[in-house]
Write a structure and sequence with these properties.
The complex is a heterodimer of chains A (about 290) and B (about 140). Chain A contains 14 helices and eight strands. Chain A has about 290 residues and is of the alpha/beta class. An eight-stranded mixed beta barrel of chain A has the order 1-2-3-4-5-6-7-8, surrounded by five helices. The longest helix of chain A is centred in the last third of the chain and has 16 residues. With about 140 residues, chain B is of the alpha/beta class. In chain B, strands 2-1-3-4-5 form a five-stranded parallel β-sheet, sandwiched between helices. In chain B, helix 3 runs parallel beside helix 4. Chain B is globular, with a radius of gyration of 14 Å. Classes of the chains: A alpha/beta (about 290), B alpha/beta (about 140).
């Protein structure tokens, strides 16, 4: 019988994993770039809310053990999606700093799941600053040597600051919802978005706008040069089967439909229709492939 | 207090004994309050850091990671939830503990087992006080 709340959270099946599409645009149109794996605690408890769950985990200094558990659960939950779609998986910077064998564990999990590192993004999240040590730098180097791309979450907020950007040199700069939401009627927010897009480009990276929940903000971030987007407006986080399971794998290799009528009678039809509609409202020319 | 007014207030109960958490949650819930329950110090802190509470009822005999004291929760609650009121409860009342709890900002101190009706009386009194304080003018430790 598990004694503590943490023990109970680490029981098999206690965590649920949902996936949220990250859509990106190039000259040929929009496509599913990756799915961010998001972990939720047991349904019906306050641990169902990720901000409570991970605040608790950080206060217990249990990032490493929980991140390992999450990675294993994500790999299980992602099985119906096939191995061709790219996954973005959150890892605490504290885990990389403190758990010297985490990069090897991570690679083993990816390999056992039949995935290749080139199709996995390590998304670094941080809420405190224990990452400044040598362990973090070594782990990051190991992750890159294994072939994983690095994303930095919440750029511009908290400890995801310029120092962290220099330490990580991420391939993906994820703009937090705090910066994105309301950018359509806030000159200063828009200026910050623009500066991060330029910064990402200077690093040879990609800016990803998170937390998009209205067409006006989507239009602004596209105007400012963002070409990778994520948010409820486009697709809510959902279990693998709701997103379309293995069908999604085929979609990822192709393009998003250019008209709503193209999406019919498929499990993933609902969210694809929603995403296509939002993208064509925000930027009619960009939505057409 | 009407259930409608009670519904505007969220209460956090912190106790490592599940029967206590269940009894208080169910009882106050029946009077219209929204009640969250935490069994550990860190769990309570996670909730206080992410949710606004009008009132916390806490057994401060809990200990946290690295030997932290439950009393530290009082200052944490004051820092994160403006205007929060705090009822400290414990099974072993001691003058020193009560003095220290009050020094750290406890509004009321009760001894377990407290009849639930008496607890409700304390809760109503403190929630009324919360309602009288304009938002953002809660006392701080």
């Amino acid at each position: 019988m598990p004694e503590t709340l943490l023990d109970r959270l680490l029981l098999p099946g206690a965590f649920r994993v949902v996936f949220q599409p990250i859509l990106s645009y190039d000259q040929r149109g929009w496509q599913i770039h990756a799915l961010e794996a998001l972990v939720r605690g047991p349904r019906g408890t306050h641990m169902e809310y990720p901000e409570v769950l991970f605040e608790y985990v950080r206060r217990k200094s249990a990032e490493a053990v929980v991140d390992r558990h999450c990675v294993a659960e994500v790999m299980k939950a992602a099985r119906p999606l096939g191995s061709q779609i790219t996954l973005s998986i959150n890892v605490h910077a504290a885990t990389l700093e403190q758990d010297a064998t985490f990069p090897d564990f991570f690679r083993a999990q990816v390999q056992e799941a039949g995935r290749v590192p080139a199709r996995v993004i390590v998304e670094i999240v941080e809420h405190a600053a224990p990452w400044a040590g040598a362990g973090f730098a070594r782990a990051l180097e190991a992750m890159r040597a294994h072939g994983f791309a690095i994303a930095l979450d919440d750029v511009g907020l908290g400890h995801s600051n310029f120092r962290m950007i220099l330490e990580c040199r991420p391939e993906y700069f994820k703009l937090d919802a705090f910066l994105v939401r309301g950018s359509h009627n806030d000159y200063y927010r828009r200026a910050v978005v623009r500066s991060i897009v330029e910064l990402a480009a200077s690093f040879g990276g990609t800016a990803v706008a998170e937390g998009l929940d209205n067409v006006e903000d989507l239009r602004i971030v596209l105007d400012e040069g963002v070409r990778s987007v994520q948010g409820y407006l486009l697709a809510r986080p959902a279990p693998a089967d709701v997103l379309g399971g293995s069908e999604l794998m085929m979609r990822a290799a192709t393009r998003l439909p250019t008209a709503f009528d193209d999406v019919r009678f498929t499990p993933s039809g609902d969210w694809l229709r929603q995403a296509t509609q939002a993208l064509s409202q925000a930027a009619p020319l960009a939505a057409a492939s | 207090m009407s259930p409608l007014r009670a519904a505007e207030h969220r209460i956090l109960i912190v106790d490592d004994e599940q029967p206590v958490r269940d009894a208080v949650s169910e009882y106050l819930g029946a009077y219209g309050f929204t009640v969250d329950a935490a069994e550990e110090l860190e769990e309570a802190e996670a909730l206080l850091a992410t949710t606004h509470y009008s009132l916390m009822i806490a057994d401060v005999r809990l200990t946290g990671l690295h030997g932290r004291e439950g009393l530290e929760l009082l200052r944490f609650a004051r820092r994160h939830c403006a205007g929060i009121r705090v009822i400290v409860m414990t099974a072993h009342a001691a003058g020193d503990l009560e003095r220290e709890a009050r020094r750290r900002g406890a509004d009321a101190f009760v001894e377990k087992p407290l009849p639930l009706a008496d607890l409700l009386f304390e809760v109503h009194g403190l929630i009324d006080a919360v309602d009288r304080v304009p938002a953002g003018e809660g006392q701080d430790a």
